[in-house]
Amino acid sequence: MPELPEVEVSRMGVSVHLDGQIISDIIVRTPKLRWDIPTAQLHSLVGHKINGVSRRAKYLVIETDVGDIIIHLGMSGSLRVIDHQVALKKHDHVDIVVGDKALRLNDPRRFGAVLFSEKGVPHRVFAKLGPEPLTGDFTSKHLVMMCAKRKAPIKQVIMDNPVVVGVGNIYANEALFLTKIHPQTPANEVSKRKLATLTRVIKEVLAAAIKQGGTTLKDFSQTDGKPGYFAQSLNVYGRGGQACVNCQSILQEVKLGQRASVFCPKCQKR
Ligand SMILES: [Zn+2]
C-alpha cells in the first residue's frame, strides 16, 4: 500500500510533467473506484491550466483556478505520465490529458479515489485531518496533548488521522522501534520526553523515506512497473521472527487493530 512517502514521491514525479499545462481532456473509463467519480464536474476543468500539484495527507491535489482534482491511490493505485495514445492496460481507469501526454491512473484493487472540489470549498475528505507530520504544525506539544487522555496503544494513536496524518503501519512500526517504545503501551503512559523524541523520529523516518524514494525514483513516463513504489531499508516492519538490528533478540509480531506490529521485546520494553 502506498504510504505518505510514496505519495509525496509520486507528487514530485508527476508535477514536473503537469505544472503549467492546460487540461485538454479528462477520460473516465470506470464510473466508480472507492467512491463514484464525478465525471461531469471533472469535465468542467477542461481548458483550464494546472497551477500545481500539492499533497494533503495521502491525497494528491491537482490545482486549477476553478477547482481541484483530488486523487487517492488507495491500496494499489499508481500514476504515470505517458503519451496519451499509449495502449490501455487492465485497470487503467482515468486519464487526465495535457497536450499529447496523459496522467494515467491504474488501480487493480479499486480502493483509490478521483474526486472534485470547487475552488475555495474544502472537500469533505479533508474535514477531520490532523497536522501534516513534516510541517511545524506537528509538534511534541501537540502529540503530548493528543496522548494525554488516550488509553489506546500508542501505535494506534499515531496512526489516527486526527492526531497526525500520513503515519501508516510501516512508519509507525519504524518510529516506535527507533524511539524504543513498545507499540502496545497506552498512549497516556508514554513520558513527555519520549513523545518529544517520537515526534522528531516520525519526521525523520518519513523524510528519509521520501529522500530514498526520490533518489531511486523510477521514471514516471515509463509504461510498465509501478512508478512511485520503492524498496526501503526497514528495521522492524516485515521482519517478525528475525534478529533485532540493535541487540539480536528475535523480533516479535502482534496484531494491533488488525495491523501487524513488529517490535523488539528487549529494546522496546513496556
Ligand atoms: Zn533489540
Characterization of this structure:
The strands form three sheets. Strands 1-6-7-5 form a four-stranded antiparallel beta sheet. The mean pLDDT is 94. The radius of gyration is 20 Å and the shape is elongated. It is of the alpha+beta class and 270 residues long. The protein is built from six helices and ten strands, in the order αβαβββββββααααββ. The two termini are 29 Å apart. α1 (4-18) packs across α6 (192-215), α3 packs across α6 (192-215) and α5 (169-179) crosses α6 (192-215). Zinc ion binds at residues 244, 246-247, 249, 264, 266-267.
Largest sheet: 4 strands, antiparallel
What class would the helix/strand composition place it in?
A: alpha+beta
How many helices does DSSP assign? 6
Judging from the principal axes of the Cα atoms, what is the shape?
elongated
Number of strands: 10
- Arithmetic mean of pLDDT: 94
Protein topology:
Blueprint: H1 4-18, E1 25-28, H2 39-43, E2 52-56, E3 59-63, E4 67-72, E5 78-83, E6 92-98, E7 101-106, E8 113-118, H3 140-147, H4 154-158, H5 169-179, H6 192-215, E9 252-256, E10 259-263
Bound molecules: zinc ion.
Write a brief structural summary.
By secondary structure, the protein is α+β, with helices and mostly antiparallel strands. It has helices spanning 4-18, 39-43, 140-147, 154-158, 169-179, 192-215; strands spanning 25-28, 52-56, 59-63, 67-72, 78-83, 92-98, 101-106, 113-118, 252-256, 259-263. α3 packs across α6 (192-215) and α5 crosses α6.
Kindly list the characteristics that best describe this protein.
270 residues; alpha+beta; 10 strands; binds zinc ion
